[in-house]
Design brief:
single chain; mainly beta; six-stranded antiparallel β-sheet; 6 strands
Length: 87
């Protein structure tokens, strides 16, 4: 399945956070960081979007609309919900 976001939307493949520390302690979702990271898969056609496919980005934990593509978690975010590009 192929999804092409419209306007200022960005399709991001979510990178799941580690749920266990190096020492073996499990971290509940409520105690994890409020930001998440992901890889940009596709972008809309708005000229103001400043990310491109394959960029690693940081975004707020509760931003976007979840979408499952071929059993992989993705989010459709508005560009304004992206906090930073990670290099």
């Amino acid at each position: 399945m192929t999804i092409k976001p419209l306007a200022d939307r960005v399709l991001v493949r979510v990178e799941l956070a580690e749920k266990k520390t190096a020492g073996g302690i499990f971290i509940p979702d409520t105690a994890q960081e409020k930001t998440q990271t992901g890889i940009v898969v596709s972008i809309g056609d708005d000229d103001d979007i400043k990310v491109s496919p394959n960029d690693k980005v940081m975004f707020n934990k509760y931003a976007g609309s979840p979408v499952k593509i071929d059993s992989v978690e993705h989010l459709i975010l508005e560009f304004k919900d992206i906090i930073a590009i990670i290099s």
